[in-house]
Amino acid sequence: MKTMIRSSYRFVILVLFMASLSLNAQTPQQLFETGNSQYAQNNFEEAIKNYEKVLDSGYESAAVYYNLANANYKLNRIAPSVYNYEKALALKPNDKEIKNNLEFAQNMTIDAITPLPENTFKRWWNQLLHIFSLDGWAIVTVVCMLLFALSFIIYYFGKTTALKRGFFTTSFVALGLGLLSLALAFQAQSNEKNKQFAIVFSAEAEIKSEPNLASEEAFVLHEGTKVRVLETEGDWQMIRLADGKEGWIPATDIKIL
């Protein structure tokens, strides 16, 4: 009898404990709103904790990363500011406000890196490439090829010279645009596969010529600098800067975007 009473008591305690947890648990939206409220009260540390809880729950959005970056920026934390603005921009590439704030955060970094110059064709090609995403270029390719097929059928079965000439021109242009968009889609896909960037989180990181501490120092980077990750070997990662410099950095000194 006593055993049954103890078991019932434990069961009640467990149910009450679980109920307490469910009542105290906040949804990502509630955590986000709480963070916003704390941010408005200049309580940036607590705001950061709530925004990070939102991300830890598995939910992410440009707004969460953007507000998290803003809170870190207010505390002059360079690396987390740049990192989270970059994450926000990846989810909302054309947002001018995110771009502007990212630029402000990048101005706090120490390292002045001048990107390698691009020739006119490469600059034009990159501008064209960034008009659409990979999925966008895939859709454009399909539409152009469908237009080509339809125009060619109308041209082939057309009865008048004017009709045939018009749709022959349309099919030729559609085929050309389709091939161009296909090339851009492949380029976008290649860029996605090779695009692994990271932000330096260490206050000062020694970049080595080889992946070991005994190797020669190539150069030094500071927190907030964006690097491209080329290769991983053990606890080291090979990086490249926008100016073409390359070297090895401990994996603990950077955070992958």
CATH top level of the largest domain?
Mainly Alpha
Q: Total domains, how many?
A: 3
What percent strand? 5-15%
The number of distinct β-strands equals: 7
Protein described:
With 257 residues, the chain is an alpha+beta fold. The protein folds into three domains: 2-106, Alpha Horseshoe (Serine Threonine Protein Phosphatase 5, Tetratricopeptide repeat); 120-194; 197-256, SH3 type barrels (Roll). It contains nine helices and seven strands; from the N terminus they run αααααααααβββββββ. It has helices spanning 2-24, 28-40, 44-56, 62-74, 78-91, 96-106, 120-129, 134-157, 161-194, and strands at residues 197-200, 204-208, 217-222, 226-233, 236-240, 246-250, 254-256. The strands form two sheets. A five-stranded antiparallel sheet has the order 6-5-4-1-7. It has a two-stranded antiparallel sheet with strand order 2-3. β5 (236-240) and β6 form a beta hairpin. α3 runs antiparallel to α4. The protein is extended and about 75 Å long. Keywords: Membrane, Signal, TPR repeat, Transmembrane, Transmembrane helix. Residues 192-257 form the SH3b domain. This is BatE, TRP domain containing protein.
